[in-house]
Amino acid sequence: MKREIKTTNDGSKTLFINDLNENYHSHHGALQEAEHVFIKNGLNLINNCEINILELGFGTGLNVLVTINEYLKTDKNHVINYFSLEKYPINESEVNDLAYFELFDNPEFKNIYQKIHLADWEKSVEIISGFNLKKIECDFFDLKNINLPEINLVYFDCFGARVQPDLWEKPLFELVADKMAINGLLTTYSSKGSVRRILQELNFQVEKKQGPPGKREMINAIKL
């Protein structure tokens, strides 16, 4: 897929896929969206001593970076195990051009950013003390064959239903639900009525939340 770098309204960059006419992140602000959907309405709602996160998909690695940034603000008495699926990894040139470490004041973030992207696929790598990342190169529907611990938090960050409708239908949500712990949280930027109904059918408690900038609503769903 041919991709190009674009700058979003908050100054952070994203990738744009010409063939799909689709951004990896909201054009209103890539960083704002990641922090609102996956940190404010995701990580910050989980209080476990060990948090297992499943991300669909890794994309540019921005969600990993904002998760580490939030982790560093805590007392770090807990452990995060982060599992991220991606079918089409970005290349070294794109990683360098995105330069997400520049969005953060911490001088260690350049090294952390590089470590995230240089981490071997299919291996668990300690990015910083207490934060372990395993990147898995696969189709999302291969999830059924992947051995994971019970997942406490899902970052459901697939491309939009306009370009990949099969990723927003019941079969994939069933696979995700099967990997989640009871009381696990799924958070996504989507607020589609069909998605809410699917999650409710799968025994999730679904709540509409205020969306990130440029989007009225988003979804939180707790597995019952």
From TrEMBL:
Residues 142-223 form the MnmC-like methyltransferase domain. It comes from the Bacteria. One of its GO terms (molecular function) is tRNA (5-methylaminomethyl-2-thiouridylate)(34)-methyltransferase activity. Pfam families: Methyltransf_30. NCBIfam families: tRNA_MNMC2. This is Peptidase. It comes from Chryseobacterium pennae.
